[in-house]
Batch of 3 targets.
Target 1
Amino acid sequence: MDKIGYFENLLKKIDIDYNEGSIKSFKKYKDLIIEWNKKINITSIDSEEEIYLKHFIDSIIIKKYVIIKKGSKTIDVGTGGGFPGIPLKLIDNDMDITLVDSLNKRIKFLDEVVKELDLEDVECIHARAEELGKNKKYREKYDYGFSRAVASLNVLLEYVLPFVKKGGLFIAFKGSNFKDEIQESKKALNLLGGEIIDIREYKLPETDISRSMIVVKKINSTPKKYPRKPGTPNKKPL
């Protein structure tokens, strides 16, 4: 028996509006994750309840704390199985989203998701963030940047801030142990043109699972020398 009723209850708990069409799409998305997970590693989470909670709800919950303007141009860096980008798109169909991942097999999966769910204004790109961030077509073109469970904050800033336009926001999804990361990111924030404007701590509904969200505003353009060569941000964080 599908756990879609459980998912709808969680959406109500976090006060997120949805419709019957989006619920059907979430169910189909969940089925595709489970099907593809048998062939390639989309996610280590394979139970229906956990996919609904730890991937879908934990992506959508951003809308409870951050106002994402209608029709915004957004980018999800290191998207993996499409989180948080696809769940956010299913809740807000007006969103224009670019999904970036360095593993081509995951991009092939996401292409299939976009096709099966008949999504518009979604671009799936197989690329390293360090290389794509130098591309004029994508550099400083986005209102919002997202990244979830990819790297430490000082590394993420170099991956994502080059894509965000001045005045835009980067939202980093984190666990409960984020305070040291913030301390270690001061240099990166200064060099890359960012400023932390909000930190939200919360628990996933009906659980004791602690999460956090770090909201960074792009206050200055990122110098052209960033991001550095592929692999450098992770090996030698700013």
Target 2
Amino acid sequence: MNQNGSTLGRLGSIAKTILLLIYALFALFPLLWMLILSFKPDNEMFTTTFFFTPTLSNFQAVFSKSDFLGTLWNNLVVSCLAVALSLIVGVPAAYALGRFDFKGKEDIAFTFLSFKFAPEILVIIPLYLIYQQLHLIDSIVGLIWVYQLISLPLLIWILRGFFEDLSKDMEAAAQLDGYSWWQVFFKMLLPLVKPGLVAAGLLCFIFCWNSFTFALLLGGGHTQTSTVSMTQFLASDTVHYGWVAAAALICALPEIILALLIQKHLVRGLSFGAVKG
């Protein structure tokens, strides 16, 4: 009986592992296919699938035929500064929505979230007219400002849940011990919500990094981002699939590397369990 049970348990574990591997292959296949296309020469793009002569010509074309490094730098600067500004503004807002009860709190929170629901194409015309009046078109400041529409609502809603999970008794006990509100906030609360800060910051960075509509219509030659720069490889008469795949792979690398570096912070820490206990 025990032997049969252990055999069934091993078979179940093997089946679960196989299913997880199949799902992982399915989920990662777009990245794998993009990697394959980026190393394929043009003359083998449609004639072979997995067996071909690898080449670096697609990457050479991406960097030689455009200022792709410059557009990557623009994208990095705008995304990082937009996320940093969102953290400065969004952390106090999330704390207020998560810790205090006041009239209209849920309405304010839903208003923030509704900014995320609105399609970018819906607000681009009024934003374009405002930017024209303020002379912010094709400027780094203008792109950072508009990227707040992408990152700030998401950040506030994520961090609000983390602040709500913290016990108010710990905060009150620290103030009774003589700590000021600022000391409690920076030395106790922020370290406890560090996993939330990292997760929210990474998600906001990904959304900002991948933004296309705002960068296309509100940017320009001086502030062109890599997501917009890739469109130059899509000609009216032909598409250089290898060049597009190489550019897309290069654009995806910062997000992949950043996610791998901070993956241990993307899950809530043990401190949340300690607080709830």
Target 3
Amino acid sequence: MARDLTTEYRHIPVMLDACRKALELSPGDVYLDCTLGGAGHALVLAGDISPDGTLIGVDQDRMALNTASKRITDAYPVLNFIPCEGNFSELDRLMVDAEVPGADGILFDLGVSSPQLDFPERGFSYREDAPLDMRMDPGNNTLTAAEVIATYDEPDLARILSRYGEERWASRIAQFIVQRRDRQPIETTFQLVDVVKAAIPAGARRSGGHPAKRTFQALRIEVNDEMGVLEKGLEAAIRWLNPSGRIAVLSYHSLEDRIVKEMFAHEAKDCICPPEVPVCTCGHTSVLKVITRKPLIPTKEEIAANPRAKSAKLRVAERKAREGA
């Protein structure tokens, strides 16, 4: 029997008030939630576009989508709600299928602490023993964390641990992984945790939380190509944004925030030629106006009430009313 997340979802939406103010939605607007999850943000923002608005909710996890759909339709029975199962990197296809010409407000909440990820069989948690999977979309993604551990060479393992996990001991952990897998396959979460603990000196393990946290984060990002997916999703979202519509992105990782910042800046420029080129030849035209020159961050009060918000950064941009405006 399919598992239902209705009772498990106790997800507190991060920076909810800031997102509402940023998107400036009105009754009748089209709101696109690219990371619907348990509908934490969507349940509130749907009230801003009701009763005649349209809510498009995207999520690649069917359990999450089913849970969110029930919550939204129960709360807003007359709202035009369109659930879309898929990854936001597929946004062009999803919007075409939804037969909606554009959106007035778009939200990305890039956090991954949704309760379905804590199901042991998914292999995301270093606190539960399970097969090393970590795929967010098992139906379409064949690469697992176990395969990464088994097949990547030592330099590549060190690279992803350092880049995606910002792991100080990346090279040493990669070395220990290769040495261990030569003797015995590393196929479960606890087997990997044991390797990481062995690689990190005892003194360094006494602070900074669970020693395997950064390794697991890095593997999850690699398995799901999260940075590449984010770039594709943002590019598509900007295309589908209506004139004067706004896009807001909540990120929790420095690499995610950098991608958002650079893409918003790129689309806000009329010329992207190298500085040494005397005359513009790129033909690029700005389509965005950056609303947040510096990212918005949660208040101390919100962090105290919701520790998940601690690393959140919110960036907002607006589609220009007309090209070149």
